[in-house]
Amino acid sequence: MDLSTIGVRFGWAVEETAGTKPTAFKWIKRCNKIGGLNISKEKIETTCFEDKIKTYIAGVSDTGGDWNINFNGTEKGSATDIVKAWNELLTASEEGAESGKATWADIFIPGFGSYFVKFQPGEIPMPDLEPNGKLDIQISNVVNEYIGLGEAIEPTEAGA
Hints:
The protein has 1 helix and 9 strands. It has one helix at 78-98; strands at residues 9-14, 26-27, 31-34, 40-45, 56-62, 66-72, 103-109, 113-120, 136-150.
């Protein structure tokens, strides 16, 4: 059976022990788009004078560093809930960073697994606004380290 994006969740956690992946993640509701991360390899030219065609070896991988996450602010009260939840994330991330702990994202995909990313969360920007449009809050974040696909950990509501 083909998989869909129904049930995908964006979760976050700050390391309890520096350098160790968290085992539980908090779910922020109303996420409607999570930017993909393409990993591209830099190329290092190794051509010598006697070569008739340029030669290369693979260099370091690059995510591009930017990562956007969108939240849907159309339900009554949800925009303020998103702001409250994101500000909680920002505070926890800043406090964790002071003691050398990273902030992790868990992109949970039912029936598939979870993608994990260490990231630095961005501030909530003023969104683009237009007549007859929905409120869409796009937050730009910085990728610190792409961990990749792993065993699924479903993010849960606080206190769940």
